[in-house]
Structure formats: structure tokens, C-alpha cells
Amino acid sequence: PSAREAQAFTAMMEDSLAEDRHSPVPGLVHRYPDRVLMLVTTQCASYCRYCTRSRIVGDPTQNFNRREHEAQLEYLRRTPQVRDVVVSGGDVANLPIAVLETFVSRLMDLPNIKDIRLATKGLMGLPQHFLQDDVLKGLERMAKKAHERGVDIAVHTHVNHVSQVTPLVGRAVRKLLDMGFRDVRNQGVLLRGVNTTVNELLDLCFTLLDHGKILPYYF
């Protein structure tokens, strides 16, 4: 292949979901008519080998700043058909809670936004973060404003094996549900030797429900 073809193939492999091609402004992916993915940070506490954003995660030179957050919000203002927003990264747990709360609060101020999902593997990997007083207060204010504005707010986490559903994870999830988050859902990845048998998957799903109060969403 030519150098240009090789470069195009490498780019396709790095961005297997073609997020860059569907990105009208930096950090915002608009693939489906009524929903968008908003990347508010490229920083993450986990470096999963199957991450579809490994091309940017952990690179401080690719991080999103206030100017880019403003451009994302402005795009939503002029695109009223969007009602569903996934706030991800990186990991939203890597943002200071004051920054995350401000961003999500401004999302709720947009009349077309009715559904907000916060994506974090940190809820599984470091549930202690979500049990800190300042984080709990920030999340509670988000849940309260969502209720007042008629917006559904939820958390999506990332559990692959039953052993990751620890008592602290369950405690953090109950806090979120008690303060008014619609639900906490799990997006898992099928991994050879980890969760590929029927019994392993059933064990994980039932443990998520019974001990974590987490709704199995998809694999």
C-alpha cells in the first residue's frame, strides 16, 4: 500500500468507531440524530487495552478546555433535535466535581436536553471517590436540578467480572439512587477467560442487580 493508504488504515484502526468523522466540534460526537457523546476530559484512571479512545486517553496535549466545552454547548443550542447526552472522556471522575457540576448544570439549562448519562469506570475502580462529602454534595445538587428541570440523569459504569462488585461499589450506587439518579447501568466488555461462559455472565448480572443495585445494560 501507499504511504497515504497506510496512514488511512492506521487512523481507521485507532478510531474504529469513526468518532472523529462525526465530530462537528472538538470533543463532541454526533452520530445519531437525537443524541451526542460529549468528551469532557481525556484523562482516565484506567488504561483498558480494549478502549476505543486509546488514541487520545492520557494525552494531556489533547485535553479539552473551557473554550472547547463552550463550543460543545453552543453546538447543542443550535441543534435542537438533540435530547440525549452521554458525558464521558476519559472518565468524568477525573474532573474536579465543581467542574463536572458546572458543565452538567449548563447542559440542564438547555431546553432540548432531556436525558444525561455520566460515564465512569471510576465508580467500580475507586468507589471511595463517590463517597467523599464534596463529591456527594455536588452529585446531589445535580440530581435535584435534574428533577426540577424534568431531566433524567443516570450513571453508566463499567464492570466486567463479579469480583468487581464490592460492598463499597454497592454503597456508592445506593447513594446515587437515594439522591435521585434515575439508575446506574453497566456497560461490560466480553473478555476471553473472564466472562465468556453463560454461568459467568449470569453470575455477574445477578450480582450487579442483587448486591450493587446496578442495571445490566449491554456487553
Characterise this structure.
- This protein has 219 residues and is an alpha/beta fold.
- It contains 7 helices and 7 strands, in the order αββαβαβααβαβαβ.
- The chain has helices at residues 3-14, 66-77, 97-108, 122-125, 133-149, 167-179, 198-211; strands spanning 28-32, 35-39, 84-88, 115-119, 152-157, 184-187, 215-218.
- The chain has a 7-stranded mixed β-sheet with strand order 1-2-3-4-5-6-7.
- Helix 2 links the parallel strand 2 and strand 3 (84-88).
- The chain is globular and about 45 Å long.
- The mean pLDDT is 90.
Concise summary:
The chain is an alpha/beta fold and 219 residues long. It is built from seven helices and seven strands.
Question: Can you give the mean pLDDT?
Answer: 90
What is the percentage of strand-forming residues? Answer: 15-25%
Gross morphology is globular
Low-confidence stretches: none
Look at the helices and sheets and give the structural class.
alpha/beta
**Rg over C-alpha atoms, rounded to the nearest angstrom:** 18 Å
Instruction: Report the span from N to C terminus.
Output: 35 Å
